[in-house]
Amino acid sequence: NPDDYVRETKLDLQRVPRNYDPALHPFEVAREYTRALNATKLERVFAKPFLSSLDGHRDGVNCMAKHPKSLSTVLSGACDGEVKIWNLTRRQCIRTIQAHEGFVRGMCARFCGTSFFTVGDDKTVKQWKMESPEYGEEEEPIHTILGKTVYTGIDHHWKEPVFATCGHQVDIWDEQRTSPKCSLTWGFDSISSVKFNPIETYLLGSCASDRNIVLYDMRKSTPLKKVILNMRTNTLCWNPMEAFIFTAANEDYNLYTFDMRFLESPVMVHMDHVSAVLDVDYSPTGKEFVSASFDKSIRIFPVDKGHSREVYHTKRMQHVITVKWTSDNKYILCGSDEMNIRLWKANASEKLGVV
């Protein structure tokens, strides 16, 4: 009956129905809500994202590469020219190669996973077998290509025996030949990194030190488009799910996500780092990416948000130079200045069980 509830005038007191059953508490819902909230918060409070560090390098880790077929294998190259292959389940180095004189500038694995390529300061591109050499065999590259200038980066095509190097210009190489099948330039400055698009596999993106991001088409062997930013872009990474989207890691502490069809303005600017962003890598789902910065931390950003959902750092970690998101979407690897590769959970409060 509404007469029991509705006030006659607004000066009347509101009647509150009471349940006099002693077993029911009036604040049961509120208490339950608070408890649930605290439980979810505690999961975040006690999160332990750091799993382990892989040490063994004798100089800063400069670049890393994922094995395309094996989840537990990762390759890393250091500033003293050493390349190490790691087994992540055992957390051990399974093989060490003295690959170059000077820095290992870049490395990439072939799409079939049987071999990998490294480039270094000694102006060479070397192709190595993925398996360890047999007993008594020498540790030697399958191929060595001597170039005219220092190469600063390398990336392999996702389907064909073709790879691209960058340095003075972007060179497209056939694996069988010792001279590039085409060279692409736009402007005169050195190019710091080059990446093949995983979906539209004939597209490449590159970052030059005159603040440009240039897109190339391998079939036309010409540059397509260029976008000039205020400061230099260190590297870019293509979204593995959306063909046109890429994210660029910039010196001005931000990351810019662009749609390559509309380069006038970025789709999203991701802020939060407090120093230059040095590397970026997408998760295999294409929903998030991880960035490594000179400010000694790595951050995880959702693609459509301007701020990071997570920041990882340890007391010992120095400037993070390279970062990779593993292909099962569970872990993140970062290589830093003080010779360590660290393994993190992508979802910090995830329960792993027996590791």
TrEMBL record:
Protein known as: DDB1- and CUL4-associated factor 13
GO biological process, one term: maturation of SSU-rRNA from tricistronic rRNA transcript (SSU-rRNA, 5.8S rRNA, LSU-rRNA)
WD repeats: 54-96, 270-311, 313-354
Keywords: Nucleus, Repeat, Ribonucleoprotein, Ribosome biogenesis, rRNA processing, Ubl conjugation pathway, WD repeat
Cellular component per GO, a single term: small-subunit processome
Principal location: nucleus
GO molecular-function terms, A-Z: ubiquitin-like ligase-substrate adaptor activity
Biochemical pathway: Protein modification; protein ubiquitination
